[in-house]
Design brief:
Elements (H helix, E strand, L loop, with lengths): L2 H27 L6 E3 L2 E2 L2 E2 L4 H8 L3 E3 L6 E6 L6 E6 L2 E8 L5 E2 L9 H7 L4 E5 L7 E5 L9 E7 L4 E8 L11
Length: about 180
């Protein structure tokens, strides 16, 4: 093979690899049902981002209520469904997962898990309090040990047996039982 053909082959391989790398990075940034919820965000979205920063980070249009309110929600225009972002003072302050059994926390907790499963995933870090509206239900609140995360929580709402929805974010917003109400 002459040097011109080798150069052409090498260039083609490099172009293919760089194209693959770019698609992988774009795929990782996109918010999906496989995105993991963590104490201060989900996927590429972090608490503290503006709505436009979050939309840019994920490549997904976020739609919702008028940003004129001091507290409002936005959600992905299409997928993932039943994922909401609370916005306070112009920045994302919490992430709510409702009726979506595919999204999990980094530890694998999800809607439908038992209270015992949640407690075993986060041993010694779950505070249990009675649910304000569900008879026999609970709030299982993950309290991080790491000092840098002390202003964040994950709150699992249960019917007394299983997780019905969960959220993560910063204090005090993550503890607002009625959301923006």
């Amino acid at each position: 093979m002459n040097s011109k053909a080798k150069l052409l082959t090498l260039s083609t391989v490099m172009l293919a690899l760089s194209s693959l790398t770019v698609s992988t990075v774009v795929a990782q940034a996109k918010l999906t049902n496989q995105s993991k919820l963590f104490i201060n965000g989900i996927g590429q979205v972090r608490v503290g981002m503006t709505v436009s920063q979050a939309a840019k980070a994920t490549g997904i249009k976020l739609i919702g209520e008028s940003p004129n309110n001091s507290c409002y929600y936005v959600k992905p225009q299409n997928e993932p469904k039943n994922l909401l972002f609370m916005v306070t003072k112009g920045r994302i302050s919490r992430v709510d997962v409702r009726h979506n059994t595919q999204i999990t926390t980094l530890k694998g907790a999800k809607i439908g898990d038992t209270e015992t499963q949640i407690k075993s995933l986060y041993p010694g870090q779950i505070q249990v309090t009675p649910h304000k509206y569900v008879q026999g239900g609970h709030y299982l609140t993950f309290v991080p040990k790491d000092k840098s995360d002390q202003n964040y929580r994950i709150v699992f709402e249960t019917d007394g047996k299983r997780v019905t929805q969960f959220r993560s974010g910063k204090l005090p917003e993550v503890k607002y039982v009625e959301g923006c109400s």
